[in-house]
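writing this on my phone so excuse typos. first protein, seq and then structure
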Amino acid sequence: MKHTNHADYALRVVLFLRVAPGRRGSIADIAAAHHVSRHHLDKVVQRMVAADLVRTTPGRGGGVSLHRDPATITVGEVMRAMEPDHAVVECLGPVRFCRVAGVCGARNVFAEAVAAYFAVLDAAGLDDIAVNDQGLRGALGLTGSTDIRR
């Protein structure tokens, strides 16, 4: 299953915020750290706000921050918020036109596979994918920050 850039960028946003000083950053800083389009990232953050994953604060000292404790955010939650369509085959989608529907077992197999995929993502929290705070900060250019793990 291949995810869109929105899902990829959303994971980058939450990883950045997970290790950023004060768990806050501007869209420009996050985009620069990941070498991605600020315009595209702005759209991603808007969707993340709607999904209650992050919040934005306007003005000086504002920016993007995690909406809640990162230990409570799962990778599966981020992916579901950014990827509304998980139909890896047509028969799992909203329009189910298939000449062999009802006499083919592929739908059940793929539905089970997607469920297993999300079970793994639901079991992985931000702390599980941010295993090296210092390394992430270095890779993202966040120097001089302290370890914020509990």
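second protein below, same order as before
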Amino acid sequence: MESRSTGDAPAVPAPDLAESGAYRIWVREHVRFADLDPLGHANNNSIGVYFESGRLGLHDAVGLPVLMRGTAVVLARLAIDYRAEIHFPNELRIGVGVLRVGRTSWTTGAGLFVGGRCCATSEAVTVLIDRDTRRPTPLPADMRDALSGFLL
């Protein structure tokens, strides 16, 4: 099992993203007919969009505005593990939390659930950048604190 740490804190075991009990933040979504591929299940691109909704739900809970003056957030890495097919119609629940907080970035962990079954998990690294230089910029202390409040 991997471990995670923030700053000077000791490493702790990483949470199991497939366990719904790991999450405090939940976002609801639904499978749209347009999300289906020729095989009749939700396309992998649609699943990426569901996880994007989850990340935006986290940003809302943290108080991170979608558009910020002088800075922006960019997705630097997205990994998705597909565990089960998702069909239409279905209601989805996306659990989301923070795995790590770094100097200029944070890592989000999420699980996509249909009923009690985890159908996919994701890890995403988001970086705060300066809008003018397009280079990473340190997270303000209040943002670091807010993100740390949602560590899994």
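The two ends are 15 Å apart (CA to CA). thats all i got for now
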